[in-house]
Please model this.
Amino acid sequence: MASLMDDLIEVLNEEKTDYEQLIALGEEKRQAVIAAEIDKLEKISESEQVVAGYLQNKANRRESIMKDMAQVLGKDPADLTVLKLIGYMDNQPDEQRKLSDIRESLLVVGKRLKSINELNATLIEQAMEMVEFDLTLFKSMRQAPETANYDRNAYNTGDILGGSGFDTKQ
Model:
């Protein structure tokens, strides 16, 4: 059980390090979005995918360790969480404290990552709205306004003025 506990603490520390890398990448992404550096955004996204792959591997390793611990403790693997594991370790205060500390630090890092991701999502959404506004503005600059011509049923005919603005055929 002690080696399983060491393995669990190690993998949780590694996950925390990877999440901290995602935080750093998220802050870089924010600057790239603000500066509209598309190439830099692309590189950051690739780096995030790599770190996400590492995190997935570590999550699989953590789940495997938790299953092994559940078997040793005689508990259902689906119900065993880190918090419950901390509660089961009253007779091992050092491991309990280490596990509790890493759990708390993971929660702090997770909240920070969530707030950075939400901020970046808002910035990207606003950037997309700005692009849409610019495209609409450019389209409207190229179109002439509709005339106020109505048919006999009082419906707008939708006629568009000529593109040049001057009628040379008078």
